[in-house]
Amino acid sequence: MTKATDKTKRFEPFDEEEREIGEALEKNALGRSADEEEWKKKLVQAARATMAKTRHISIRLSEKDLLKLRAKALELGIPYQTLVGSILHQYAAGKVKASF
Length: 100
Fold this sequence. Notes:
- The protein is an all-alpha fold.
- It has helices spanning about 15-25, 35-50, 65-75, 80-90.
- It folds into two domains: about 1-55, no CATH class; about 65-90.
- The longest helix is centred in the middle third of the chain and has 16 residues, at about 35-50.
- The protein is elongated, with a radius of gyration of 27 Å.
């Protein structure tokens, strides 16, 4: 609960463990965890997995452009959706430029 009279305390601890953690924080007495590097690796992996997720989108293309994309994908031996995704990825990464 917030106390209007005591601005140094943001909340009242719910239990003894939280009180001890709060006191340790105030004294700057918390040290690094023994498995900090392992946690860091796990968090990096989780972040990469999150960033690697794909999302379904719908776009409107002219029939002519779609046929050309399908023909190019057929020449390359890949699905046309993969080709479109690759082109968009390269553009987003700044590897190709669009001219308007």
